[in-house]
Amino acid sequence: MGRSVAFTLDPTQDPVFDRRLGLSAPARGRWIVLTYRGDPVPRPLRPLLRLTRDDGRCETFVLPAPVQGAAVWLGYLPADCAAVDLAIDGRGFELERVGLRSEASLFGECLRKRPLRAIAAGYNRLRRHERRYRDILRGSCAVTPRGAFDAWARDRTRADRGPVPAGPTLQLILPARREEGERVAETIRSLQAQRFSAWRLHVAWDHAGADPIPADARIVEGRWPTAGCFGDLVGRAEVAALLTPGDRLDPDALAILVRTLSDAPASEMIYADACIGAGTPESARLKPDWSPDLALTTAYMGTPTLYAGALLESLQALPLDAQDTFPLRLALNATGAVSCARVSHVPRILSQGEVPDSDAGQRHAAVLQRYLDTHRLPARVEAHPRGFDLLWALPEPPPLASVIIPSRDRLDLIRVAADGVLNGTAYPAIELVIVDNGSVDPAVLAYYDGLKQDSRVRILSHPGPFNFSAMINAGVAAARGSVVVLLNNDVAVLREDWLEVLVRQACRPEIGAVGAKLLYADGTLQHAGVVVGLGGRAGHILRRRPAASPGVLGRKRVAHEVSAVTAACLAVERHKFDAVGGLDAETFAIDFNDVDVCLRLAAAGYRTIWTPRAVMAHLESTSRGPAIGAARLRFEQEAERFVARWGGTIRHDPYYHPALSLTTFGEDLE
Which contacts qualify for 377-385: CB closer than 8 Å, 24 or more apart? Predict the structure, then answer.
């Protein structure tokens, strides 16, 4: 943690960076470690730190959120650092400690933890690539694999300091089987240890003769009704929740959850993170903010979840005919009845539970099929998670999909991409629009002449300096399809159903952009969704990981919400694309245009979806090196404009847990 130094945190006149850090020891050219507390309820959770240099240049960093009560940030103060300012704007923030570390100690830690990365760090240091050298040190020393969550959390967990609400009274329902008596007792003991005491518990056994439970006037027990509805158990309660036998709530859990009702009075569903099966690699269930598609296919909210207001009223008619599957049915019905504005997520582990049983996936598939049948949705659900993508029917007749490919020369690429669209795709209504940026290769021009014999193909000339956004906009303007698909010329079709999968999702009224699963030529992941804030701007999560990587909560196995997807393969209905003005060709000619348009679609009320069923190969990207010279300058300028436009979203990507690192791409902890 480094040598502790005395510090001050003084107010400033800046409307955003409202505190300036003062240190009692020289810190220029040193590494600094900040340990700070915070409340998990108010937003935004991630503090910002701004470094100002002697010449006035500034650099901003998004710090980890104190989700367990505290957080730790490791960073480098350059030799010309003139000031360190913080944007904290949240209740309960307290800077606990400031430490200084030497470069030698960090390199030694890197060598112990990640020997191969230490070699890479040393190599970059010898080449005077100082930024890359420091990034490797940070990624090795400041980041923890999720498999080490337990130790990570112990260092950061602090007791909640927030006020304990006086009410309302919380009605808890605990369905239980006779053989679960000890687990029921564990749950009750955790309830009796709660700081929030205004709760009632109804233990509903599967049959009579269960073991006695601890005496408490707030607890009643009885049989799970074979008839009736949820309202019979809830009564007139304003707030209710289901628990699972063996749930051990953190002593602060109910106080934090009920307090969230006061902070977000419009909320009708509030859920928190949980730990299932302590000590296992995926024990921490670090949940995103409200993600309806993910909720429908996985019921990820789990426990603890509170229901209130109009949502609770709508759920009271849910029949109680099956005790084992009722929690899933409750979650599914809540998913279909609640909007984003009425859901709050507390990103803190508030419950410990048992390892889920192996039949959970089969039960969920059966419950989901029943939900679809009840709502007369024409889909059949497979037990395998991939089957959930079939929930969304293809319109009849299938709409014309216009595939837009910007290209210049490179016959080896455009021939593979175009052939995959025209001959490797099963979708029945395709238009291919190639937007050519001044190709001069005779072989390419001859290839175009051949393509023009296909009535589905149009070649659009777009000479001049390369501007990806302008080329895409021109292609969309010339397209005839009601669905447009942006496709790079270095993408190859791997499965013939890719376009149908994308169109199914894109035609949903509430969905904007839809992205595909892209693989490098070596078979590793190139694109599994974009996290806004990753690397300080935006980046591809799980890049270069194995193609089958499940991701947090197994999300990479099912279609789910993300903040953005890459334009290398992006489908969107044309009227939605036009409604937000298409790609911003003036501000983001080459980079960040796809993320920007996804965020503008989100601002217009549309969700972005990534699906693992549309699988493509992104060939050329695997060998492309970093931009240098003028290209690097242009990239940095577009990056600065992106940060200026989307600073708030960079600080909190709703689909990326605030405990996860923005430094690395592997869903690690920071």
Answer: 385/297, 385/298, 385/361, 385/554, 385/557, 385/558
